[in-house]
Structures are given as C-alpha cells and as structure tokens.
Amino acid sequence: MKENTIPAPAALRGTLADPAMPCPTYPVYTGDDLGATVTAHGTTFRVWAPSASGVTLRLFATGSADESEASSNDPIATYELTSDTAGTWLVHCDDASHGTYYDYLVRFPGGTVNRTADPWARAAGVNGRRSMVVDLHRTDPDGWADDRRPQIPISNLVIWETHIGDFSNDPHSGIPAEHRGTYLAFTHDDTSVDGAGEFPTCVAYLKHMGVTAVQLMPFYDYGSIDESLPRDDPNRGYNWGYDPLNYNVPEGSYSTDPFDGATRITECKRMIQALHAAGIKVIMDVVYNHMYSTDNWFERMIPGYALRRNADGTFADGSACTNDIATEHPMMRKYIVDSVLYWAREYHVDGFRFDLMGLIDVTTMNAIRHALDALPDGVNILMHGEPWAARTTALEPGTILADKRGLAYLDPRIGAFCDSTRDAIRGHIFYQWVPGYLTGACADYADDIRHATDAWRGTVNERASVGQVIQYVSAHDDLTLWDKMCAVRRRMPTQADYEAGEGCEDLLLANRLAAGIVFTAAGVPFMLGGEEFVRTKHGVSDSYCSPASLNQLDWRRAQRFRPMVDYYTSLIRLRRENPAYFGGPRMIVQRDDEVVVVRVGDDCLAINPTGDVRYQSAEDLEMPAPYDAVSKITPDEWTCIYSSEDNYATHHAHDRRLALPPHTFTVWRILCER
C-alpha cells in the first residue's frame, strides 16, 4: 500500500519570476589565473571567451587615447591568443610588465569584432576603458604586511554608512583640499571642523563616537563619473556608484591620480589600513546584481552569457537599472565568488554589503560565505544585504533568490536589512506621508515595535539567528530619518524644518527615541552617516546623482547638533557595556497602550512616545522569561540609569512603579546589592 505523504508547505521550489532563456552550455573553467598575471619574465594573459573564433591582445603605453601627443590609439604591440582549455584563450608576452595598458579585440563567427577591456582586470586606466598589468606587491603601502582586521565581537558591532566623497567633501571638514573626497581623506586621524580643534571630524569623529564598522558605498570602478576631469570641475558630476564597470579595480575618481592605474590601488589600501589602525572594520558595498550598461565587457567578451534574458531574448530588469546579472550561471557565480575573495585577500576588506541581494541566487551567496570561511580569519568577515529586488527578474525553473522568501536557505551568518523595523519606526518607505510609531501612529505600531526590539523572534519575520537582523531607520536610499519625519509631521516642510530650526523640538525628541530603539534592539545596529546630527537632503529621496554639495556630510551641522551626537555616542557605549542587548532573551511586557517596555537581563527598556507621563508596574517586571533567564527582583530596586531626556537619569522606582516621562526612551537597572 502506498504511503500518503504531504509535501512541506515551507519548501520553496524556486523564486517566482518571468521565464528566462536557458544558460548557454559553455565549458566551465576552474583555474584561478584569468586576467593578466605578472611573472618573472613578462605577463601571461588568459580570458574566457568560449564562443569566440579569435582574440587579439593590444598593448598600450597609456590608459587612454588622450594622454600623449602621439596617437595613443595605436597599440605599441599586438599578439594573437591561442585557444586553450575550457573555452579560454592564452598568450604570454615578455614585453608586457607592470604599468602596461591593454585591451582585446574579440572575433566571432559571422565577422563581428568587439573591442573590450578585460573583465578580470585588477587595474585600469582613466575611466576604466583600458585595463592595466599590475604587480600587486608594488602597490602595497608601507606596513601593509602588518595590517590586521580589527577583532570586534558581533555584540559590539555598530555600522555607520558613508560615501567616500561625502565623508570629506565639505570644505569645513578639516581635511586638506588636495585630499577631500578621496581615499586619502581617511588617512588623516586628527581633523576637526575648520581645523579649530573644537569638534572632531572624519576618522577622529568616528573614534570619538565609538563606531566599530564603516560601510562604504561602492568603491570598485564605476562608470558614471568622468575621472579625467579635475575634482572641482562642475562637469565631473557626482554619483553614488551603483553602476559597476570594472569589479576588481578601485574607483579612479577617489584617487589623487586617476591616470595612473597603480595609484588608486595603493591609496585604497591606505584608506583601509588607516581605518584598521583606528580599530574600525571596513564593509564594502558591492553590486553583483547588475552592471553599468547592457553593453559591458562581459557582453563584449561572451555575448549572451552574463546577463539574464527573458524568453523573448530581451534583457531582464529586476534591478530597474536595465539589466540583471545571471548569478546562477556557473562562470558568473565563479566570477562573483572570486571577486569577493580578491577584495578580502588583497585589500583586507572586513565585510560585504550586497546591493539588491534579492536578485542573487542563494547558491551563489552560500558559496561566497563558504569561500570566505576558508580564508585565515575568514569566519569573521561579515556578509549582509538587501533581501529584495526592484522588479521581477527572469529565471530558469528551480532557481531560488536571496530575497525574503529565500532567507531560510541562506547560511545563518548572512544578514539582511530589516525593513520591517525601519517602516514600523518611521513609516512606509515609499509613501512619504504615511506615519510610523514615532511619526504619528504609535498606537498602530506599538506591537510591531515590541517585536522589533526582540529581532522579530517568534514571528513570521524571525531569522535563523539575531546576527542576521540588520536593525536600522535610515540608509543612503530614500529619505533621511530627519527628512521622513519632516514629511510626515509637517506635510509641507519648510527650509527651517530641514535646517532643524525653532519649532522642531518634537522631531528632535522622536529622533532620540528612534535611536534608542535601534541601539538596544536585538540584532546588529546600522545607521546612515549623519543620522546622528539630523542629516537632511532637503527632501530629496534618491540623491544618487544630485550635487555633491547636497550629499556631503555637513560637519558644521554635526557641531551644531553636538548634543544629539553625544546622545548617539552614549547609546553606542551603553550597548557596548551590555552584550546581552545583541541577542539576549527579552521579556516583552504586556501592555494595552502605546508604551513599549522590554526587560533584557537586569535592564528594563521603556519607550514612551506619548505626550503624557505613563507608568510601568515594577511587579510586572518580575515575571521570569523562559528558563528563568530573567530573575525576580524587589519592585523598588529599579533606578533610571539612562534617559533621552536630560537630567532624568538616577530617578528611582516609587510605590512599585516606574514613571516614564513623555516622549522618552529610558533604561532602568537594578543597582542595589542583593
């Protein structure tokens, strides 16, 4: 008799997507020598071009055609590559050495010839149109061999996001003019506003705050900036960098000399070295979900392979950036894994943030995690990403993407941004006037905040581990926290609102409560750089190509809002002193109002978003959590040791009640000896 079986309803047989063209059946090359490899007697060049009928290597003295009076369009030498194993082409050149620039002419049956840079290049000329041979040892700064990743427990992790240009573009940053907006701005460790010595900026500021990890928006070579123009040329433009051109090459616009392919490498390493010396991890924002254009080096080298295509042959566009990388194709998966390993090994990067991770398949994400774990100290390299996409992509059946539905298939040490916490605190991300807990709808979202403080454990949003939960209320995308609060509470914000002038006390109080929730919640706290000094972009929600002046950190504003900066600094210190905040069991106190009260260890965390004093019975805090993780105490032993309201700390429980002032975040603790 046949046994009846019921398939597990949670099983995901594949992400819902549009039908895709099948992956071309090309051979897979497993070697580690794609690109240009410097040897004792020249350089060996290898590319993977299985559909090509021939490949020509062209060598140049410069990285672009405009760098010398001679015709730099004419190569100094050309070589024919020989067909080799698994679809690769190979040639060795005795006369190609460090600093030689090159590209390829790839021929195909039917007569098509594509000029292309090297997708596997590790160095490039200005604007990345020609690749460069590089001896990486010659790019190491002094002391690079002694550089080590900071050893920071995950319970102490505080992630602060910035753009390399935004960090120091402000002329009041205290950074010398020649280094503003560059990698080298991070090498100045004692800067202050206008150099006056009164308020720290840049790396000195991060050290003062206690930030333990800096997440840098993309700094691989991207395609939207003309690196050949001076930094102060208004035609040069500004961009966040989510448009990859050369994945394994640092961006040239952050270099003091974008024409020299080696300079940007050395200066990028110096940036990372300086942050490590300050005890700060470096997280690299990477974009392996799409490329700058459908006309890219991969499409020129291997047409029809690198990007997903709909069944009718058109490009899939789940990224809303014209194309999606086919991460599930074997050689693209290998490329992505190898690329991440390269940045971890060569540049000592401490972590990776995956843009639109919801477009990357779970097999590739897990392969990256496994490969990083195999490196010395690789288990401490961080991984997290956005578990969503902009639109529907195209997939072959059975492919599972790392979106919210696919998180259960990821290694538990791959984290994801928690938009449930973000939207509960501040309001809907796409509808600017829709409120959240702290912007006018506290009664509607109180239960969500209770779950958020516990990293959503016990709910449908629960993750495999609290370390997977990136808790935040603002990031580079969408409105800043301050601008969102202005949009909801003011409807038609004025310049005075954005500048946080008179009459903004309610918004400042809400900002403090938002930070209190994030920094004491289970999980990993994350913030947009400048959130702590009420950063504004004057209502611009997508400033990816807005002027640098709108995007840059305003260091005088930071000084002006020093009390708010000090408040964030004290929250970071509070979290560091209480490792249980990261993942310790919570006892969520049952209440029928807008106030949220949570007990973790011997601390009681209370959020009162209302305009009235509310009270919490101390007796209700005696209820033990599972396994008696929370001990019973005497009702009047509670003392307020931290408050978002000045001068309220040191208040004690009275008559078996904790008094919670209006619009406050407070922490209560048992201080007496038992």
From TrEMBL:
GO molecular function, one term: hydrolase activity, hydrolyzing O-glycosyl compounds
Domain Glycosyl hydrolase family 13 catalytic residues, every copy: 184-575
Database matches in Gene3D superfamilies: Glycosidases, Immunoglobulins
Classification via InterPro entries: GH (IPR017853), GH13_cat_dom (IPR006047), Glyco_hydro_13_N (IPR004193), Ig-like_fold (IPR013783), Ig_E-set (IPR014756), PulA_typeI (IPR011840)
CDD domains: AmyAc_Pullulanase_LD-like, E_set_Pullulanase
Superkingdom in the source lineage: Bacteria
GO biological process terms on file: carbohydrate metabolic process
Family: Belongs to the glycosyl hydrolase 13 family.
Name of protein: Pullulanase
Organism: Bifidobacterium ramosum
